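Limitations
The structure tokens in this dataset are predictions for the assembled complex, not deposited experimental models. Users should treat interface geometry with appropriate caution, especially where small molecules or nucleic acid strands are included. An illustrative entry is reproduced here so readers can see what is and is not provided.
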Amino acid sequence: MISAALAAPLAAVGEVGEGFFKERTSETLPCQAQEERLFCFDWAKDNIGEYWTPAVQHVELVAISVIVGFAIAFVLALLAHRRRWLQPPLLAATGVLYTIPSIAFFFLLLPITGFGRDSAVIALSAYTLQIIYRNMIAGLANVPSSVKDAARGMGLTDRQILWKIEVPLATPEIVAGLRIATVSTVALATLAVFISAGGLGKPIYEFINFKTNIIIAGGLAILIAIAFDAILFGLQRLATPWRRAAAE
Amino acid sequence: MAAGGSGMSTLALPQPVLASIEGAIEFIFTPQSSSVTGGKKVGGLEQVIELTVNQLEVTFLALALALFVALPIGLYLGHRGAGELLAIGLGNAGRAIPELALIAFMAAAIGVGLLNVTIALAVLGIPPILTNAFVGIRQVDRGAVDAARGMGMSEFEILRRVEMPLAVPTLMTGIRGATINILATATIAPLAGVLTLGDFIINRNVYGDDGVLAGAILVALLALVLEFALAGLQRLLTSKGLKLSPA
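Predicted assembly:
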């Protein structure tokens, strides 16, 4: 379902590498030759446009992985919230997925999903499960029982209590988990290049001895992480107006 | 669930997948001929053990360096209750460091080799250890600390005998996170001249698809074993009183 939804941008995946910088080599030679130079501004100015496609791929990779991870973790957490006996086995299972290094996970999937974005998305979303799941369970558990009692006294059903009381009150913790998972995934997604899923790892790997290139691509990854973090923080403030009211 | 692509509807492992796993297991135990090494065989238990030892070596060196730098600072700041912005901010910023860019930059800017990779990996380990040391110590009940002070303990004794034992769960969470991240990133250390199990994964043209899958299986197992061992260590270090109270 993922590849169907993203058929258009997927076409670009894996095609960045071929001759990514190659035809520009002659222009970059003067600066590249000076190995002690940390950053070539002229080269950066000429080539910054080349990073657009990998950066967009990177954002897509992270966004899809986190959304898939969030959807699954959300369902798991709601299940475990209802049936407490599920909590230890789910924590252990997501813990195993979290512990397996992403780059190993990519290639464990190689015989099944092969090279490309599917393998990267599965591994990266599996990685986010534990962080999101654990924060969500903690958030739901921290809702004061007095509030739930009051809601029950007002005649709300269990389902209404969950969606109108517990989930909204747990939002800050849920978003906190989402932010940690997203920022980590932005960093990890640089490794997706090894499974041919594109992203900012592509230019890094293509031109791994050139510091200017690594600084630009790495810097863009950090900027993307900051941007995601800021957006999620903004969303949390929008979703919890009562907290702003209390602060004023 | 996220597969959905071509011919991926069956959940039961199809024949080619089983064959791949068989190939990978064979690669781990017996050396295979490779098309690019000019007759020299690759894989086999001997090479697997050598690369595993290398990966553990660089992981533990980096972890030791990270602990050496981060633990005293985190404990000190936590004990003094100062530098919260630094301790928490560093933890958040550390997560954003792109692993591939870090290893590549260290190799390009400083050079390849064990020492440089150790430093690069330690950079990844410092933030979680420092932040969790700080948070762990700060979380300790101030009443317990005041009681210890009233009993005449020195500041160092308070840290060593009251705050640190009570902070073990949080501290160990940070150390476990750091260890797993360092081990995971040590997988791409071959890019910086340190041959770890990741060599099987990264140099597919040398080791073939069997080698790639074997590398992935070995790295995953190594991470799980290490995590399991550290979880055991944490249980050993946690005082009985803390285990009784719900985490």
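Some entries come with short summary sentences. For this one: The first helix of chain A runs from residue 2 to 5.
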